[in-house]
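Can anyone check this?
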Amino acid sequence: MKTERTWTISELAREFKVTPRALRFYEDRGLLSPRREGLNRVYSVRDRGRLILILRGKRVGFPLTEIKEILDLYDLNDGERAQMQTALKKFRARAVTLESQREDLEGAIQALADGISWLEGRLAEPAPKAGLAAARAFEQEAKRRLQDA
């Protein structure tokens, strides 16, 4: 009899660089369903696969509710068609959102680059004489006060 590979909470946490608390959180939200052996959680191949999909979904910005919705469609026994159709629809919508965010980020980066160039140009100009004179006067007054103290 061949036994299915299992993992402890520590093993999965270490492999996927998440905390055991995160895995317990996913369990509380119904995303993972490890079996129990006493007080220990035992994760199956199915749990590990679901964790991979949870982390991928999070990486591209899906909320856990949408990730759960997609994962739960796997159990319909329809050859995963409903799951794939739902995922495709959500993936397309997320791609549109991310493209818009990329445009916003590129605009913000360009605005910062323009500001940096302007500031560098201003700082490369000779300092105004009045500014130098004020700085020298301040320095002399500071020295005088230090000597008088």
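Reply from J.R.: I decoded it. The longest strand covers residues 35-37.
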